[in-house]
Amino acid sequence: MTISSSYKMQLQFYRMNLFPYPVSPDDPILIKIMHNDTLVASLRGYEGENWGRKNTMKVSFTVREAGTYRISILARGMPIQGSPFKKDFLPGTIDPSKCVVLEGGSHLWDQGTDLLEVRKSIYTPLTVEARDKFGNICPPSLQDVNSYAVEVTEIGSSVKIDSKLVISPDGDGKNNVLHIKLDREGCFNAVVKYNDVPVRQGQFTVISLNSEEAKQVDENMKKQCLNVWYEAYLLGHAESSQANGSSLSSSTLPWMTSRVYCYISRKHLSIEDFYIKIIPHRLYGFRVRPSTKIILHPLDLNMEHPTFTVDDGYQSPVTIMCKERNVLVATLSRLLLSKIGGSESFNDKKDFFYRELVVHLGRKEGEVTLKIDRQKILESSYQATVMTLCSSDWLRPFKIKFKDELGVDRGGLRREWFELLCKALFSHESGFFTRFNENDPQALVHPNPKGPLSKMQFYEFAGRVVGKCLYESALGSSRRLNVKARFSRSFLAQLLGLRVSYKYFESDDKDLYRSKIKYIEETDPEDLALVFAEEECDRRGRLVKSVDLKPGGRHIPMTESNKMKCLNLLAQYRLSSSCKQQIKAFAKGLNEFVPENLLSVFDEYELELLMCGTGDISVSDLRQHHNVIDSGSSFKKSLDWFWTIVTSFTQDELARLVQFITGSSQLPPGGFAEISPQIQISSVPTTDSLPSAHTCFNQLCLPSYSSFTEMQKKLVLAINEGSEGFSMV
User: What DSSP string runs through 17-83?
Assistant: First the structure.
């Protein structure tokens, strides 16, 4: 039977002597309908006053999922004749709005247009999973196959391009595979249609590469995008009118270009130039994530090379002219596909990082003895290292001798010294780093903008200490050192050369985010009389000074149209420019041992794990100290699956989960009991989507899932990669 929204069945009851039995709601009749181990709700109806029909009961239930339904009927605790019954329901007709394109491009769910890389004059497969209006998978048929089409147009044009299409079922006979061939190279728009109706998530930006371009992309991936760069020209900031893919010309952008270099890493696209042709200077850094859009522009006779715009929604869009544009963008797409496919784990990147760092720095033999005064841990450590040792001595094992103590260092004193030094450098009490909320011991620490400028050398010393820690860890587990600190996300991001946005307030300054940022983000601020300026107050709330976030900012009102720009300027002031010297000094010390291009293989969350490692995270401790916001019966199944999955996690995976929920992989000394607010697990009204989190509330939001396997796959993807990836427009 084909699936429908409701299924009705009629039951008739008789006595032992075959006379009709007048059934009523008071009779002990149990009806249990099961599908895939899930109980299906049912409704009953009775035939009223007609004596000849009083033995009839009508049972109806909603059928949305195809498959076999098991119907058990018991009267007075005994199954009726033939019970349990089995009823098979087949999928309905194909609904294009429910169809899903499974593979073939760098697919970004719910992000609109995706990228499909093809080779000129060679068929490229694109798998379509056909579904009915309830989301059930429909097996392919000859009639369905003949209903598909792919409409291709050149970017910036409505003229259709001839494309060849061959359609066949996949190897399992479950899905349809569309084999597409273009006999032209370049950039195109493509729409997959079923009976002339566009398929959901079936819109693509197609890059057709010639054989030489495809070879270059293959070589980039073989090199794991290490030191991959392309010469380009910076045209300036794109206007919003370019976002629809319109042509660029001298009338829309100034004809002032500057030569830059586009560097591709596994996590970032960075745009750099060089001072006096030898000193690199990063102009822009874009994260590989859904909010970062690559806008491909049509060929323009006024431009020497193809152009594209990068827009991450936070900083001003940047337009680039690059001869190898298609190779550059196709490489980014390949990186995304490898990431979503799970081929690039944190452990793999960590092993790669350690291996390359040892090759870069080499190994040094022989120990260096440091004489340390425990009572003056910071000053004596600085004197024993920075003021005494050369750079190569930092690569030798340190042997610690505490003043007036007889202990012999066999590894224990070194670890004790390192923990004491980390506390002296990175704790809120040190003065070098601070918490935005001084009264919250769980708050992340950030370089102190009010730190003593006369002691700026200690920030560079702190960077060296972290670099030494990473180098020691690269030499093996016996020498591993973990930095005892809970750094803010925005600070770690800036060490990677990334630009900060107001989104970092959610993890770094939770009070400000909850009290101000989130409210402005969700409402129209015009009635709040806010301006492009930041007021700084003392502890008593008295105004100390007002700082313009842009020239004349105190006279520029915040509106609905400019509020995001204002919030980003606020983030850049509070999180970056106010402590720019401190961050620059720290990065200088760190990069003395660890090159920036090696760090760029990580994002800021992975960088914390690399530096700080993981503590002992207990699942039983989490189960004892959390709140559930939705206690419905359907969510109970999701919770049971969640705990089953989490129980099997490694310590690294548990750290990523804690990081995903709270913003930091490091727990307070008292474990989950000291997290405030307590971790919350809530349901969201979606199905089979990625879990999400609100770090300012320590809240994990779990959708419902069609199967245990689907939930496991999506949870692991969320905590490891989140929703990172490029969106193509």
Answer: TS-B----TTS-EEEEEEETTEEEPEEEEE-TT-GGGTTEEEEEEE--S-EEEEEEEEETTEEPTTP
User: How large a percentage of the chain has pLDDT more than 70?
Assistant: 87
Peptide bond into 84 cis (omega under 30): yes
pLDDT tens column, 92-111: 888 888 887 765 544 332 33
Whole-angstrom distance, CA of residue 494 vs CA of residue 515: 25
Q: Which residues of 143-165 are buried (b: 16+ CB within 10 A; e: fewer)?
A: ebeebbebebebbbeeeebebee
For the chain, how long is the longest CA-to-CA vector?
106
Q: What is the pLDDT of residue 613?
A: 75
CA 150 to chain centre: 31
Measured CA to CA, the distance from residue 549 to residue 606 in angstroms comes to: 31
pLDDT digits (tens, 9 = 90+) for 632-677: 667 888 888 999 888 888 787 888 898 888 877 777 656 788 787 8
AA identity, residue 579 = C
Upper half-sphere CA count for residue 162 (Cβ side, 13 Å): 2
pTM for the full predicted model: 0.57
- Which residues have C-beta within 8 Å of that of residue 1, sequence separation ≥ 6? 7, 87, 88, 89, 90
* pLDDT tens profile 43-78: 888 865 555 568 888 888 878 788 888 999 888 888
pLDDT surpassing 70 at residue 249:
no
On whether the CB atoms of residues 663 and 489 are closer than 8 A, the answer is yes
Structure tokens at 145: 């196959």
The two structure tokens encoding residue 128: 């379509």
Q: Would you name the residues annotated as active-site residues?
A: 696
Question: Can you say whether the dihedral through the CA atoms of 675, 681, 686, 688 is positive or negative?
Answer: positive
Closest among 285, 694, 252, 319 to 513, alpha carbons compared: 694
Any idea of the CA torsion for 430, 431, 437, 440, to the nearest 10 degrees? Answer: 10
Ranked by mean pLDDT, the top range of 286-290, 619-623, 659-663 is: 619-623
Q: Is the pLDDT of residue 727 over 60?
A: no
- Mean per-residue pLDDT, 482-506: 87
The kind and range of the H/E element at 702 are strand 699-704
Least confident of 59-63, 165-169, 287-291, 591-595: 287-291
Q: Are 297 and 309 in contact (CB under 8 A)?
A: yes
User: Is residue 689 within 8 Å of 500, Cβ to Cβ?
Assistant: no
The per-residue pLDDT for 655 is 84
Q: Alpha carbon 342 to chain centroid distance?
A: 13
User: What secondary structure does DSSP assign to 176-200, as a single string?
Assistant: EEEEEE-SS-EEEEEEEEETTEEEE
Residue with tokens 């030489």: 212
User: By three-state DSSP, how is residue 265 classified?
Assistant: coil
Distance in angstroms (rounded) separating the CA atoms of residues 366 and 371: 17
Question: What's phi and psi for 319, nearest 5 deg?
Answer: -105, 130
- Residue 444 makes CB contacts below 8 A (sequence gap 6+) with 435, 486, 487, 488, 489, 507, 508, 663, 664
- The two tokens of residue 364 are 């040094």
How many C-beta neighbours within 10 Å does residue 457 have? 13
Helices (H), 230-387: 325-340, 346-361, 377-385
Backbone angle region of 421, left / alpha / beta, with phi > 0 → left and psi within -120 to 50 → alpha = alpha
As a whole number, the mean pLDDT across the chain is 82
Helix (H, G, I), strand (E, B) or coil at 233: strand
Given the structure tokens 């040792």, which residue do they identify? Answer: 389
